[in-house]
Amino acid sequence: MKARKIKEKIIESILLVSSSITSITVLLIVVFLFSQGISLFGDSTVEKGSVMAVNKNNTIKELTGSQIKEIFDQNIVYWNEVGGKKDTIILFRIDDIGNYYSDEEIGENFEGLSECVNRLVDSIPGILAYFPEKYLSKNFKGKVLPLEKVSMKTLFKGKEWFPSAQPAAQIGAMPLILGTLWVSLGAILLALPLGLATAVYMSDIAHSRVRRVMKPLIELLAGIPSVVYGFFGLIVIVPLVQQLFHLPVGETALSGSIVLGIMALPTIITVSEDAMRNTPRAMKEASLALGATKWQTIYRVVIPYSASGITAGAILGIGRAIGETMAVLMVTGNAAVIPHTILEPVRTIPATIAAELGEAAQGGLHFKALFALGCILFIITLIINLLVESISSRNKHKSH
Amino acid sequence: MNKLESIDLNLYYSDFHALKNVSMAVKANTVAALIGPSGCGKSTYLRTFNRMNDLIDNVKIDGSVLLDGKNIYDKAVVTDELRKQVGMVFQKPNPFPKSIYENVAYGLRVNGINNKKILDESVEKSLQQSALWDEVKDKLKKSAFELSGGQQQRLCIARALAIEPTVLLMDEPASALDPISTSKIEELIYELKKKYTIVIVTHNMQQAGRVSDYTAFFYMGSLIEYGETKEIFTNPKNQQTQNYITGRFG
To answer: Rounded to two decimals, what is the model's pTM?
Structure first.
């Protein structure tokens, strides 16, 4: 009797331990993701240990990351374009020092370098100097610009994703978020009509023998590894899109949408077909007995009755499309620009993380920015899952 | 004139012989009750009149069923046209998850009638025929699920009447209802037979006795005895019928 009780206790504690391990793991991952992602804010887009300085008479108080990039790309050449006086901007990088001072002045071991930089910044009114902090002289006569901190605005308003740019990294997530949404939206627009048509056919029109063959086939579609879909897309769909629309490259948002659409099909079909088959037989019979045709019964009774199941299927399909990495990475062309049409290359959030994590230095700005992207993706999919949850609970409520 | 008639009707579910050589006729504006133990084929037989059995895979039917003298199993017959003439009420109330109004209007809408005036008139008329109008006239836009079980069943009757059939099939229409609702349905059947020919399946012997003019007793897929209800209940010719009616089996 006692042995039995002890056995029960042991089993209970094993179950408790396993469930706690699972919950803690999930929590740890979420905490890790967000701690990394949030630590991005407060960092500067300009590399640590570097200084941006201007002449003391310059009225400029600060420069944003994107302004710095535009200036160094020489898209902005006058100070008044960034709110200053009407002077030409004269760029100075530390390598340029030889153009202004002789080797003797700089010194063999760069001992005179800080003084040279100091004099140079003081003498040229339109200068924008970018140099390592260690060459900042103690009695510097210029004005050191405060470095812009990364904020939500940088992340969501920035139109450019170029985290390895010098001197100021560009971490605008908008092109990636838009790329993800475009590709997923396209995928759902392609997959939803096709998936719904298949679901209707399988649930209400196909003979049971046909259904017995089709259903496992469609479920098989869900089991194909995504890299195979990517490969298929690269070899078949990319050239097809290129030829069809006479494009210079076939790796476009559209190709990604097609591949993702195919991948989302099994989810959409199985979930909505189940919902349609759950339409009570009595409901269908009532409709048919009133002289409605098969098709009238489908669109007046079956589809309205299973509307929430269909919605859940569609959202789950979108969820799969949004999180998909490999196949999209292979077919969308990976250009981190805001897309204007679906026939342009785009880059999605998961593809960016997969492609760039290897080259980002751990703990650096780029690394943290990728984690912030991960957080954004996590939030998007979380919203989608909550939507599915609320829709299916509404469904349960309705059937009672 | 016989409104409905079946001649040597045989029905098979795959290998199972569910109806065996059933021949009987129902006169216009009468109520015929089909009685018999569970699994005797009475519901299957009822469903041959509006070809509801067509929906089940592997059903085979021999013989003929005549509606106004015409075989409804003829190749030229369109089932949805047939079902507009032969309405049906099911065992469990099965309103659509729509408003009361839309439930009644459904049959007209699938016939392409969307004129609001015609719909309004038809909805009111059908609900009055099914003795539900006074209870629901102020809440036509409410969901049909807000009604009680008995009201839902009368709504289903109204829904069937809206398309103006000539025959009404009822498959144990009161079996899921309380006694008060049941008596309302029975009164309704008595009223409706003035305009419609009614075939009703019932488990309840008293009900068959109360509502029907003719009664058919089915057993093991065969029609054992068919005749005037008074005769069947007071003076059955067949021993099996007598045993069933007196409650010795079933």
So the answer is: 0.77
Q: Contact B97/A304, CB-based, under 8 Å?
A: yes
How many whole angstroms from its chain centre is CA B242?
Answer: 25
Residue B18 lies in a domain: yes
Per-residue pLDDT tens digits of chain B, which is 250 residues long: 789 999 999 999 988 999 999 999 999 999 999 999 988 999 999 999 999 988 887 889 999 999 998 999 988 889 889 999 999 999 889 999 899 999 999 999 998 889 999 999 999 999 998 889 999 999 999 999 999 988 999 999 999 999 999 999 999 988 888 888 888 889 989 989 899 999 999 988 889 999 999 999 999 999 999 999 999 998 889 888 988 888 766 5
Residues of A with CB under 8 A from a CB of B: 207-208, 280, 282-283, 285-293, 296, 300-301, 304-305, 398
> B87 to chain A nearest CA, in Å?
6
Residue B14 lies in a domain: yes
- Given an 8 Å threshold on Cβ–Cβ distance, is A291 in contact with B81? yes
**Cβ distance of B106 and A296 shorter than 8 Å:** no
DSSP state of B94: -
Structural domain tally of chain A?
2
Residue B250 located in a structural domain: no
Residue A309 contacts residue A399 (beta carbons within 8 Å) = no
Residue B95 belongs to some domain of the structure: yes
Check the CA dihedral B244-B248-B249-B250 and report its sign.
positive
Q: Omega into A239 within 30° of 0, i.e. cis?
A: no
User: A353 lies in which domain range?
Assistant: 174-399
CA-to-CA distance for A39 and B177, rounded, in angstroms? 66
The contacts of residue A369 (CB under 8 Å, 6+ apart) are A40, A155, A163, A169, A171, A173, A360
- CA–CA min distance A29, chain B (Å): 44
Handedness of CA B172, B177, B182, B186 (dihedral sign): negative
B62 to chain A, closest Cα gap in Å: 22
- Report the relative pairing of strands A127-132 and A50-54 from DSSP bridges: antiparallel
Residues of A whose CB is below 8 A from B111? 291
> CATH code at A110?
3.40.190.10
Q: Does B84 touch chain A (CB under 8 A)?
A: yes
Residues A138, A194, single domain; the answer is no
**Domain limit, last residue, from A149, A182, A200:** A149
User: Helices H, strands E: what count in chain A?
Assistant: 17, 6
Annotate B80-111 with b (16+ C-beta within 10 A) or e (fewer).
bebbbbbbbbbbbbbbbebbbbbbbbbbbbbb
Structure tokens at B58: 């592997």
Q: Tell if the CB–CB gap between B90 and A286 is shorter than 8 Å.
A: yes
